[in-house]
Amino acid sequence: MKFISPMIFTLLLVIFTLVFELNLVSTAYFSLLLSIFVHELGHLVFGLFNKVRPESLIFGFIKLSWEKQFKVRLNTQWGFFGGLFRYKPTTFNNKKILRLLTGGPIFSLFFTLTFFVKIEFFQYFLYLIFQYS
């Protein structure tokens, strides 16, 4: 019997941070989940462009599966708590596999650059507003 699952861990972390007002901990945790989701989404998108059939996408406590139909489930396995993109095994050439594998880091890099550029622009915009008001 499992003592604690990833979903229970997340709920306990949310309750703990609300009770003790540790907003930095919860922000860091959910930022980590978001970055894992973006990374695994990159593998999924690049896989779909290369006609690879997805089997499941796991990030944190959420599992998306495409077995017979699309389903959203809770991830109960700690081994896959970080993230996992699983696809149907078929024969691929090396170029398709390389594209599939590089999809995650490319999406992560693109998301990071976009996020930081928007934050920098927003901070500069606020600086201009408050400086001249």
TrEMBL record:
Keyword line: Membrane, Transmembrane, Transmembrane helix
Reported cofactor(s): Zn(2+)
A Pfam family assignment: Peptidase_M50
InterPro entries according to UniProt: Peptidase_M50
Peptidase M50 domain segment(s): 29-121
Main location group: membrane
GO cellular component: membrane
Subcellular location: Membrane
GO terms for biological process, alphabetical: proteolysis
Regions that span the bilayer: 106-130
Membrane protein topology class: Multi-pass membrane protein
Family of the protein in this entry: Belongs to the peptidase M50B family.
UniProt name for this protein: Peptidase M50 domain-containing protein
Organism: Enterococcus faecalis
